[in-house]
Design goal:
With about 180 residues, this protein is mostly helical. The protein has helices at about 5-20, 35-50, 50-90, 95-175; strands at about 25, 30.
């Protein structure tokens, strides 16, 4: 588990502690909480999440850089080949051989550039897929934690309401018996 995951989980647990330890409003099952403290914890959680998005942006930038380098290399090889062809054309004896060699070099450069582009794309796709899975896992973990907390809260609320209702019924019985 990464440090970011641990920090987010700790912040969510702290938020849960705040809710559980806050002053309760009788009968309603509601609690009184410090708005500023809650908002600070939520802001901290939000501030941790952009790191995952920055990582995805870095992968995209790296992909563009690799593709740019492959294109530059292709252009350099192409330019070098063209210069070589021009020189050989000047020497009329090897014009035919130069044409063949130039085509081989261009084809080789194109194959290399294509292989580099495909490799960069595959790498970027793999990293993005992995990042997407990590984000999905983190989202599911957070949702499970929130669901668990909400279910616990609902059970506690139901129990408190049942206790309050029972107390009220007992009080009503006592009042009626006083007549």
């Amino acid at each position: 588990m990464s440090k970011i995951e641990v920090n987010i989980i700790e912040l969510l647990e702290y938020l849960q502690d705040i809710v559980e330890s806050s002053a309760k409003v009788p009968i309603t099952g509601k609690v009184v909480m410090d708005k500023k403290e809650i908002l600070e914890v939520v802001d901290q959680i939000i501030n941790y999440l952009p790191d995952e998005f920055k990582k995805a942006q870095w992968v995209m930038n790296e992909r563009e850089r690799i593709l740019g380098e492959a294109q530059k290399e292709y252009e350099a090889v192409k330019k070098q080949t063209m210069e070589m062809i021009k020189k050989q054309v000047e020497n009329h004896d090897i014009v035919k051989e130069a044409g063949i060699k130039a085509q081989e070099i261009i084809a080789s450069a194109q194959r290399e550039a294509k292989a580099i582009r495909l490799g960069a794309r595959d790498y970027a796709d793999e990293v993005l897929c992995q990042l997407e899975k990590e984000i999905d896992n983190k989202t599911n973990e957070c949702l499970k934690l929130i669901k668990t907390d909400v279910e616990k809260f609902a059970v506690e609320l139901s129990e408190n309401l049942n206790k309050a209702s029972a107390t009220i019924r007992e009080n009503v019985k006592e009042l009626r018996s006083m007549k």
